[in-house]
Amino acid sequence: MLRYIDVNDSEEVLRAIQLTDAGLPLDIILHTPGGLMLAAMQIARALHDYKGKVTAFVPHYAMSGGTLIALAADEIVMCEHSVLGPVDPQIGQYPAASILTVVEKKPIAEIDDQTLILADQGRKAITQMRESVAELLSGRYPDKAESLARLLPEGTWTHDHAITWHKARELGLPVNSEMPPEILQLMQLFPQPVRQNPSVEYLPTPRSAPAGQRQDS
Length: 217
Prior knowledge:
By secondary structure, this protein is α/β, with parallel strands linked by helices. The chain has two domains: 1-85 and 162-192, 2-enoyl-CoA Hydratase, Chain A, domain 1; 90-156. 42% of the residues lie in helices and 12% in strands. It has helices at 7-18, 37-49, 65-71, 96-105, 113-138, 142-151, 165-170, 181-188, and strands spanning 26-29, 54-58, 61-62, 75-78, 83-84, 90-91, 94-95, 163-164, 175-176. The strands form three sheets. The chain has a four-stranded parallel β-sheet with strand order 1-2-4-9. Strands 3-5-8 form a three-stranded mixed β-sheet. The chain has a two-stranded antiparallel sheet with strand order 6-7. A hairpin with a 2-residue loop joins β6 (90-91) and β7 (94-95). α1 packs parallel to α2 (37-49), α2 (37-49) runs parallel beside α3 and α5 (113-138) packs antiparallel against α6 (142-151). The longest helix is centred in the middle third of the chain and has 26 residues, at 113-138. The chain is globular and about 75 Å long. The model has no long low-confidence stretch (mean pLDDT 89).
């Protein structure tokens, strides 16, 4: 998955899972800033229910909905500087948790109806996301499911907070940093058309020191 996740993505991934013989190992490469939570949760549930081993590879980043999908895997493989992110719901342009903070801190008479409606939506969204994370983790990691179901969706960090593989391992997620070189080679075949003129240029070839040269010279 190489962009924002939408229902077309979930349709394609679900079809691919359905066409895979039960019990075969299933790998998914995640490279996404997130996207539609409905679509991400459809994919995550399908991976969670799959009978064979599921491995999620995150060569660069899998934020928000991408993280939700990764949580459904039996194993998450990340590079040393790859990142996951929180799965806290966003209501429009605002974090749901921040809207609730406003409602909690201001007198009800000073809060407009629109903010109260957003707060109601935000409260429901956080509850739904907490239940979804618990659902994905409870069967495999019962000792961590409850704490992660509160930590990841409830606005503990900003939405773009980077959860490194070190932090993910500390949180109890099944991560390792043994990224196969083939995955990185595959990523080079799918350059992202982010901007016309990149601000960073380099020669995409391996750099090796001459034979016999010291590493610190």
